[in-house]
From TrEMBL:
Pfam families, per database record: AcetylCoA_hyd_C
SUPFAM superfamilies: NagB/RpiA/CoA transferase-like
Source organism: Falsiroseomonas selenitidurans
UniProt superkingdom: Bacteria
Coiled-coil blocks: none
Organism lineage string: Bacteria, Pseudomonadati, Pseudomonadota, Alphaproteobacteria, Acetobacterales
Name of the protein described by the UniProt record: 4-hydroxybutyrate coenzyme A transferase
């Protein structure tokens, strides 16, 4: 059926999950200017740009700039959940009635979830009604989750532009940071690095490694480059986000396996993965080792995401390492991203007890099993030189007050 026909016949009062990333059903959303029910979502900043709260009250486990007005107005309920807990919430307490998502064209009595295999399988298992918005341009990936047509309540004809997320070329400082982070990876390790410019820079710095595997929630264009370089042999992911070339590649790449959050972020699976190296970006790190990866100047810019899942999984992995990577300064070198202490009200995305390795363009610091004084001194050494004296003085004041 057409998106307009589906929207016109949609029963009011439902709790409807709207898929994110490349699974966002834009054709249906455009045909649904308002809805007398509740929407639920896990949108990704820079990718899912529609303000869903303009359609209906929204419950979201991630934050985007487009949702901030709705958050301020009370139209958005933000749930600060790990990705693994977001999956558990959707499958249970969220009480989702229906899930709407983009899928590839039907083949052999089933449809592929194409670019986003993260949350829909869990909702399918929990019994939610499923609505596939068919887009023939989406890749029917060789190794991923397929849903039988008999399980779908409706198929909607809904081609729409697939979001692109090309990574920016790294500057000199980012390239140095990437080399430092790559130095913590050994041949044969399993690497999680996510998406974005920092992740792409780190992954590109691994091209001379061998026998690597990639396991994570999302991949970008850097992963196929590692496959082509012979550095990576196998990839497990939930989502692909990047260029059109990436989407063309996953349509025929048998070494990339798409799996749901229940597998990509599962604590037991991660802990049982030997030599798992989780490399994640951050906004700032304080001298206690606490990491903020979701707020800038009091503004919620993203969410908890999978960072804690992967940090804790990597720390429990035999031979694993959890790496927090960030440039030492921002805003043209005027703001330090190594700070004395996170400001009141700033969320702690990674606790000091979970802190492991921290990398900036100025070096590498191991915080695992380090006492407070040692970790503070090591982190001060990672700061941009113009901020080190002030950080040392601030730490001395903090230490005296303890």
């Amino acid at each position: 059926m057409s998106p307009a026909l589906f929207a016109a016949g949609l029963k009011p009062g439902l709790r409807i999950f709207i898929a994110g990333c490349g699974g966002e059903p834009l054709a249906v959303l455009e045909a649904l200017p308002a809805y007398a029910g509740t929407l639920l979502a896990v949108p990704v900043a820079g990718v899912n740009r529609r303000d869903l709260s303009a359609i209906a009250p929204l419950e979201a486990a991630f934050m985007t700039p487009e949702l901030r007005p709705g958050l301020a107005a009370g139209r958005v309920r933000f749930l600060p959940l790990h990705y693994s807990e977001a999956d558990a919430w959707l499958r249970g307490p969220a009480a989702v009635d229906m899930a709407i998502f983009r899928c590839a064209a039907p083949r052999g009595g089933s449809v592929s979830l194409a670019l986003a295999h993260d949350f829909i399988p869990g909702l399918a298992a929990a019994g939610a009604s499923l609505v596939g918005v068919v887009d023939p341009s989406l890749p029917d990936v060789p190794d991923g989750v397929r849903l039988p047509l008999s399980r779908l309540q409706a198929l909607v004809d809904g081609p729409s532009p697939t979001p692109l997320l090309p990574a920016e070329a790294p500057g000199e400082a980012m390239a140095v940071l990437a080399r430092h982070a790559a130095g913590l990876v050994r041949d044969g390790d399993t690497v999680q690095a996510g998406i974005g410019s920092a992740a792409a820079a780190v992954l590109d710095a691994l091209s001379d490694h061998r026998g690597l595997r990639c396991h994570g929630g999302m991949i970008g264009d850097a992963v196929p480059r590692l496959l082509d370089a012979g550095a990576v042999t196998q990839v497990t992911t939930g989502v692909a986000l990047g260029s059109a070339a990436l989407y063309d590649r996953v349509a025929r790449e048998t070494r990339i396996a798409f799996r749901p959050v229940s597998e990509t972020h599962d604590a037991a699976r991660l802990a049982a993965t030997p030599s798992l190296v989780a490399i994640n970006a951050a906004v700032e790190v304080d001298l206690f080792g606490q990491v903020n990866s979701e707020m800038i100047d009091g503004r919620q810019i993203s969410g908890q995401g999978g960072v804690a899942d992967f940090v804790r999984g990597a720390r429990r992995s035999p031979g694993g390492r959890a790496v927090t990577a960030l440039l030492a300064s921002g805003r043209g070198g005027t703001v330090s991203r190594i700070v004395a202490c996170l400001k009141p009200g700033t969320p702690v995305s990674v606790t000091r007890a979970d802190a492991d390795w921290v990398v900036t363009e100025h070096g590498v610091a191991c915080l695992r099993h380090a006492d407070l004084e040692t970790r503070a001194q090591r982190l001060i050494g990672l700061a941009a030189p113009q901020f080190r004296d002030a950080l040392a003085a601030a730490w001395e004041a903090l230490r005296r007050a303890m």
